[in-house]
Fold:
Amino acid sequence: MLWTMPGVPILITNYESMTRDLSEFPEDEAPKFDLLVLDEAQRIKNRDSRTAQVARGIQRRRSWALTGTPIENRPEELVSLFEFMEVLPPRATPDLRQLSGLAEEHILRRTKDLVMKDMPPRIDRDAELELTEAQQYAYRVAEKEGVIHLNELGDSISVQHVFELVMRLKQITNYDPLTNESAKLERLVADMEEISASGGKAILFSQWTKCLDWLEPRLKQFNPLIYHGGIPHKRREPILKKFKEDPDAHIILMSYGTGAVGLNLQFAHYVFLYDRWWNPAIEDQAINRAHRIGVTSPVIVTRFICRDTIEERIDRVLSEKRALSESILGEGDNDNPSLGLNASEIFGLFDLKKRTHKGQPQSIGPVRPEAA
Structure:
């Protein structure tokens, strides 16, 4: 087997092969290494996953974990990395201040502004929009009926009930399903007219492939391309090639799942977040498809946020989440108590928690987009 071949100084493999192959070795015959390096180490963020267990069980003298997102949802994910590095004993439960101290001692952190000082900046802007009249009506009706239904559920209410209402309201902020009116689309078209006139290219992210399919025919003047989990794998590379080489292809519509990692699109200098993912780390990974080594101009990131809607409330939670991640990794306020968009916060979006006394601090909903 490759793992025990003599004269092989460096062995490169993927997580799937590692998990499959090393599970078959008797303990006394398992391979031993001087150095074990995990790239994209957030793959072992769940300490109870089979991948994390196998990685921790590999015999080695030293351990390195490489990742751009050591915390995606909860501080416990960083604990799993520290267990792999044998900085913490198994099943340790450090508090936030202890985690912050461990991070300072054991994490070598290099942000883009430190190592690529000549790199053009990333410019973030929030486009605060008013819903169209039709959207406002649809939103008010859906919210009123939804909250009434939640209150009628009484003690049987669950976080899933609340989550379903959140998703329905978020979809209405994208476009009204009856009239197809959309404040976001109006702003997007206006921005894209300027971008296309200057020969620029843009990436748009949404969490719904249905929304991307809805947008495509409404952006025909910009020759849009679509890249999401429903696109066969053999067609994906030609789509990316066309986006790069065709001067008339001004925008590519991507799902967070397929577009957030593993792509180099630094020739696109505009990024639109048509709707927000539940996790700012995933959003950053998506934005970094454009803002990366090789970019030649500033990257302008536009987040669409509709006023007086669930999007404003979610944005506040995401800001808190980002602040805690920074505090643990060495910046910000260590007293910030919130990281995940969890059950407690979901109930709080409609002021239900204090009335129902429900909502626990475990994460809910999809914490990472599917990369179909």
